[in-house]
Specification:
Elements: H1 7-22, H2 43-56, H3 59-71, H4 75-87, H5 95-109, H6 119-135, H7 146-158, H8 163-175, H9 183-194, H10 199-211, H11 219-232, H12 238-251, H13 254-270
Helix pairs in contact: 1-5, 1-7, 2-3, 3-4, 4-5, 5-6, 6-7, 7-8, 8-9, 9-10, 10-11, 10-12, 11-12, 11-13
């Protein structure tokens, strides 16, 4: 695949070089004793063994196997270890180690084809690194850098079509983080993510459309997106999405409510398979 390097992509490459430079060590290359991998003899088999161990509840065996696979270049293993360290899932929570695993994926696979089997892990790694740059990692060389975060989200959103990156980029345009405030661009990115079934993007797009905050107002369609978002909101988002929806519903006319419900039902039927 021939990659044409735009200014954004070149900026991302510089970001990744900087990400590598701030690490005092590469956690993906941590030494480990020879793990018990059962009958697994290759990195791919170790990845499968690690996945089985993880879902059976043997987190230590999973970490050992995944580390072996990660050290031998398996992006899925690197990504899973990054998530485990980020969440303290079976290991002590360590954001710097998580950052290291995600950075290794991004550095080695930045030009991975967007339809390749590895693409979801690469896109997710870019989003994770961007999120770390939004806040920095306390007491480490990874300092807050919202411009870098914006570049990373932009790359994952544009090149890989990541819904999470598109949502994050929409929030940055809406809030003016890392650049100019641009509600029209925010709505554009929210819409792309919303159409992929991203609940938070659906809610944010719906609120923008309903209120007409510096964009063309469409109250019925805004309420439609808020309705869809409320229907699928998970525990972490349910309260704020519900509050946003209830506020819009109270202000909407009866005709707008009926129109929004019809649109929401049509969208749900058409995109019933989206997560």
């Amino acid at each position: 695949m021939r990659i044409i390097f735009t200014k954004t992509m070149l900026s991302v490459c510089m970001c990744l070089s900087a990400a590598t430079a701030v690490l005092a060590f590469d956690p993906a290359a941590e030494p480990s004793t020879a793990p018990d991998l059962g009958e697994a003899t290759t990195p791919r088999e170790a990845l499968r063994f690690g996945a089985r161990a993880y879902y059976s509840g043997d987190k230590q065996a999973a970490v050992n196997a995944l580390r072996f696979a990660a050290e031998n270049g398996m992006p899925a293993a690197q990504w899973k270890l990054g998530r485990m360290y980020a969440e303290g899932d079976g290991v002590a929570e360590d954001d710097l180690k998580a950052f290291g695993y995600f950075s290794r994926i991004a550095n080695q696979h930045a030009d991975e084809g967007p339809r390749s089997p590895h693409a979801p892990y690469v896109a997710s790694a870019f989003v994770a690194i961007g999120a770390y740059y939004m806040t920095g990692i306390h007491d480490t060389a990874v300092k807050p850098n919202v411009r870098r975060a914006r570049d990373l989200f932009s790359y994952a959103a544009s090149y890989f079509g990541s819904a999470e990156a598109q949502y994050n980029l929409g929030r940055m345009y809406l809030d003016g983080d890392g650049g100019d405030n641009n509600p029209h661009m925010a709505a554009r990115w929210f819409k792309l993510a919303a159409e992929k079934g991203h609940c938070r993007a659906q809610a944010m797009l719906g609120n923008l459309l309903f209120t007409g905050e510096k964009i063309r107002q469409n109250r019925a369609r805004g309420l439609m997106w808020l309705t869809v978002a409320r229907q699928k909101a998970g525990p972490a988002d349910r309260a704020w999405v519900q509050q946003m929806h209830e506020k819009a519903f109270a202000l909407a006319s009866e005709d707008e409510r009926r129109r929004a419900m019809t649109l929401a039902e049509g969208w749900t039927q058409k995109y019933a398979g989206l997560n």
